[in-house]
Design a protein that fits this description.
The protein has strands at about 1-5, 10, 15-25, 30-40, 45-50, 60, 65-70, 75-80, 90-100, 110-115, 115-120. The protein is mainly beta. It is globular.
Amino acid sequence: VQLQASGGGLVPAGDSLRLSCAASGLSFRSYDMAWFRQAPGKERDFVARIIWNGGIPNYADSVKGRFTISRDNAKSTVYLQMNSLKPEDTAVYYCAAARGRYSYSMSSAYQYWGQGTQVTVSS
């Protein structure tokens, strides 16, 4: 199983970025997909989750109204559109896959992880 995250970069505050995570080696349509992020010296935090059929997504309060998670099952890819970026959004962003019954905001619930992509927002 491989989850390949991409799209990170260095942007000024207020700008936008779109992250992608391409999955292979798993039945993508069967998995819920999520984004987490980890800032230096901090724990890995939940950002957003979208279930296998693209139903109503879940977001961390800190990103609601600014970030949008989506998926394309035909391309086995999940996206994170990030608008109105703030310096506090700076982190390594990871995509993750899970299925079954679980607490979606807990990183330990996810079976597969991507390698991460760095997002840096300058003030």
